[in-house]
Amino acid sequence: MTRLRNTVILCIILPVALFVMLATDAVKEELGVRTRLLSMYYLSKQLAAEVALANSRDPQELPPNYGRILDDYSHILDSSAFQELVSISGHFPESSFSKMLVSRFMLWVENLPGDFFSVDPLNQLAVTLNMLEKMQRLNNLEREKLLLKHALDCLYQNPQEPGTCWQTVRKIPEIVLQQGLDFCGERIPLARPDVRKRIEYQIAYLLTDLRTTTTTWLTRRDRYTQAIDAILKAEQVPSEFTLLPALESGYNRRVVSPSMAGGWWQFVKPTAIQTLSKDPDLDWSLQINSVKDERRDLALSTRSAARYLKWLRQKLGRGDRPGSWLTAAAAYNAGFSEIKHRTNAYNSLEFWDMKLPIETEEYVPRWIAFYLIDRNRDFYEIDVPEIQPLEFDTIEGVRFSQDLPLAHLAVLTQTSVRFLREINGSLTRDQTSFRAMRNNEPLTYTIHVPKGTKDEVMWMLKTKKYLRD
How far apart are alpha carbons 33 and 86 in whole angstroms? Predict the structure, then answer.
């Protein structure tokens, strides 16, 4: 009887034990796969967010190196860093298998979406990337068709009548090559093939891919450059910097970048509100609060940008020798620390002698290319409609005893509220007046009024008792 009972028990327990052993190996293998997928899932979500941000923008606004960015994303799963992440996530000591089982199960329950086991996030990422790459190929194809069309137009032109197609008008004008190009008080080395090629590439880019945008920039440049130039001259900054807001914001005060830089000159908030200069004459601080954002004030932000650029040039110099204005502009784009590191690494203060981040490599040549197009509009066949330059008077240090409605100021100065908002861009959209107080504290304003009305406005403010004593 005992032998029979032992035999029965053995027949029951042995298959169960074998099943459990086999099932354990299968579960371990499945768990290892799922853990690797979990690591991939979080990485893919980060990449997908980047791709979605780029996909939400107009293809014409994407940087020229966007194809390289996509290529980097598509190969990131093969990188050694990612493979190391996978190997770490799949490695657990055998002795702690039970704890590993429980911890992984909790990880699934608490972190994974409900459709994780039915939807492959990596496959979704691949589909998104393939779609974006396809869009890019289509855009490149359309661009090639456009260039081919104008190349064919060149063939039909009478050889004695050059300069009628883009193939012949996207180079540096011959007279500039003969006389040389002075930019920001510095001689641009056009004799160097690499420098000339970089500038001509940006001329071609602005006249083909961004032709409509370039025309818009030039129109806005005619509107705002007079006001900008007056401030730059007062701050002793070269007038060529009047064109830099085209690259920063497109002369649009409402533009906000993905890094939350805003205003005409695209200051990020930490840089805008706190100056790093110990020289009061280089204090570029701006006020940003719920009532106003001075990054959107043309005069105030331009003065701050000029002082910031002067500080950058000073810091990028050596001894008594100031740095290059071009290098200062590069630091404005890439950041002071980045450019300072490059000047030390390459032992040079010249922009053209350093290898820089790709965006900055294109930033300064594009600025120069836009300058050449602006100075040679007829040569490049750019037709820009005439527009009235923006003019206004400025009153600084105004403190109100009561709110001043924009509508009242518009009636007094015989202008529109829209125009007052344009010249007083620091006011937030929901503000319909210059508020006197914020959090029980008086506010101080720099206000702008139509040209020639400054004295009349000040008399009215005093008469109507709008000003604090």
Answer: 10
Please give the residue that has the higher pLDDT: either 72 or 400: 400
C-alpha to C-alpha distance for 304 and 446, rounded to whole angstroms: 14
Distance CA 191, CA 176 (A): 11
CA angle 176, 384, 211 (to 5 degrees): 75
- Give me the pLDDT at residue 258, please: 85
Of the candidates 303, 361, 267, 408, the one whose C-alpha atom is nearest the C-alpha of residue 63 is 361
249: amino acid identity, one letter = S
Is pTM beyond 0.70 here? no
Domain 183-375 has CATH 1.10.530.10: yes
Which pLDDT does position 39 carry in this prediction?
52
DSSP one-letter code for 388: P
With CA atoms as reference, report the closest residue to 34 among 124, 126, 111.
111
Strand 444-450 versus strand 392-399 pairing type:
antiparallel
pLDDT band at 112 (very low <50, low <70, confident <90, very high): very low
Domain parsing of the chain, residue ranges: 21-169, 183-375, 392-463
Q: Taking Cα atoms as reference points, which of 258, 281, 263, 283 lies closest to residue 273?
A: 283
Q: Which two tokens stand for residue 259?
A: 């890094």
CA–CA dist 433, 463 (Å, integer) = 18
Amino acid letter, 91: H
Nearest residue to 429 via CA among 417, 440, 438, 437: 417
Neighbour tally for 314: CB within 10 Å: 14
CA 141/CA 144 separation, integer angstroms: 5
Environment class of 327 (CB within 10 Å of its CB; exposed 0-12, middle 13-18, buried 19+): buried
pLDDT digits 0-9 by tens, 394-417: 999 999 999 999 999 999 899 999
CA-closest candidate to residue 213, choices 249, 179, 186: 249
Name residue 464's amino acid: K
Alpha-carbon gap, residue 242 to 110, rounded angstroms: 54
Give the integer Cα–Cα distance in Å for 396 and 447.
Answer: 6
Is the pLDDT confidence value at 358 over 80? Answer: yes
**Residue 188 contacts by C-beta under 8 Å, 6 or more apart in sequence?**
180, 181, 182, 195, 199, 368
CA–CA distance, 263 with 296 (Å, rounded to integer): 4
d(CA 28, CA 269): 50
- The kind and range of the H/E element at 397 are strand 392-399
What letter does residue 440 receive in the DSSP assignment? T
pLDDT single digits (tens) 258-288: 888 999 999 999 999 988 888 888 999 999 9
